[in-house]
Amino acid sequence: MSGTVYFISEQAVVNRAMSDPTSKAQLNIERQIYDRLGLHPCITAALLRSQQNMVILERLQHTLRHRLHELRGRDERPASANKARWALQIAEGLQYIHSRGVKQVDIGTYNVLLDWQDNAKTLRLCWLISRRVRTHGRSQCARHTSKAICFEPFGPF
User: Fold this and answer.
1) What is the pTM of this model?
2) How far, CA to CA in Å, does 30 sit from each of 84, 129, 148, 156?
3) Handedness of CA 151, 26, 121, 102 (dihedral sign)
């Protein structure tokens, strides 16, 4: 885990590294990845990356998974236009991330956030992990040891 996320304003949250060296190293990689990615409308934005042991991120509503569960609880389905828009935004975000030399391989509704206009943005999760952990014969993300296979960012930073 790269850190703990705290609410700081209506527009921002801060991801602070925990005290262990691994957390600090992972947060440093996260900053490097945000530097490489820059701004794009379909990925979460890092508002400030220069602070040691923290990254300030734009604050978004909630996960797409949360929205789908809310709709399901009301026995509703998302509008076709929303489903198409979300799919396109997720695909565009992933294409951009991969085009910048970063792999995001843990894709699901739990790591796509909706902004305040209901646009989908991919959330940083496994693409910021810098090392592999061997579990049951396969490399797995240190944060998602039950299912996600994660890769190091490729190319020099």
Assistant:
1) 0.72
2) 30, 8, 18, 14
3) negative
Coil, helix or strand for 86?
A: helix
Write the pLDDT tens digit of every residue in 80-109. 999 999 999 999 999 998 888 887 777 888
Instruction: Give the span between the Cα atoms of 7 and 80, in whole angstroms.
Output: 32
Rounded CA gap, 119 and 140, in Å?
30
- Which domains are assigned to the chain? 4-140 (1.10.510.10)
Strand ranges across the sheet with 112-114? 62-63, 112-114, 120-122
In one-letter notation, the amino acid at residue 59 is R
Q: How many residues are there in the chain?
A: 157
Give the amino acid at 55.
V
Q: What sign results for the dihedral spanned by CA atoms 122, 125, 126, 131? A: positive
Structure tokens at 132: 């592999």
For 115-133, what is each residue's pLDDT tens digit?
A: 999 999 987 654 433 333 3
Dihedral of alpha carbons 12, 16, 32, 103, sign: negative
Distance CA 42, CA 91 (A): 9
